[in-house]
Amino acid sequence: MNAALAQGAGWGLLYDPALVAAPGPGFIASLRARAPAGLAERGRGEVVFVPAPGGEWAVRHYRRGGLFGRLVQDRYAWLGAERTRCYREWRMLAALAELGLPVPGPVAAAWRRAGPWYRADLVTQRIPSAVPLSSRLAQGEAVDWRELGATIWRFHAAGACHADLNAHNIMLDAAGAAWLLDFDRGRFRAPGAWREHNLARLERSLRKIARDATMPPFSSGGWGLLLAGYAEARRLRLRPSGP
Description:
Elements: E1 4-8, E2 11-15, H1 27-33, E3 40-42, E4 45-52, E5 55-61, H2 66-72, E6 76-77, H3 85-98, E7 106-114, E8 117-125, E9 131-132, H4 133-138, H5 145-157, E10 160-161, E11 170-172, E12 178-180, E13 187-188, H6 194-210, H7 220-238
Antiparallel strand pairs: 1-2, 2-7, 3-4, 4-5, 5-8, 6-8, 7-8, 9-11, 10-13, 11-12
Helix pairs in contact: 5-7
């Protein structure tokens, strides 16, 4: 995937030139102005969907979580353009897409600096007809847990560590195939215990949402199938080739 840079005094953009032509400092604002009424909140991020060639784009504004987030909200310490969260996430998504992994295609990453702080946005291609795993569970719809486990292993086999793997960051498309979103603070790592930590984080997320009275109970059988799919995909990859 090709990448291009545009920048000026106090702003910068990393983008796919096949999708975006000559963006300027008002690129994100112009996208938001095209957004229909309605705002989608996902985790700490603030997301709007805008019409784009071939479908829609998701425009996510970075926001902090926790107690510190109440104080600084959407500001981050400036350490250089290449260390901005949006540039790092854009580059990781691009690398994962090049590997053929199911992630939304990165469109653009933008930062605006004010003194020692910056604010950031990320634009990605919206996955058609996809809904979060948490929503699929809330509707009582079937989930292919075994295939989901195999998909997670594909990311782990590539060394892709998701910093917050949960039921809201896993999307299921119309065919039931899984996609992973929100690689903010994600990174590539050598094999290690982080893989088990990723799975444990997802299990905690599923158990947490199951405590909501409007949600079905946690499915230990479904979780077992996920682990079985993960283990089987891992065995297939590690199996020696040849006769």
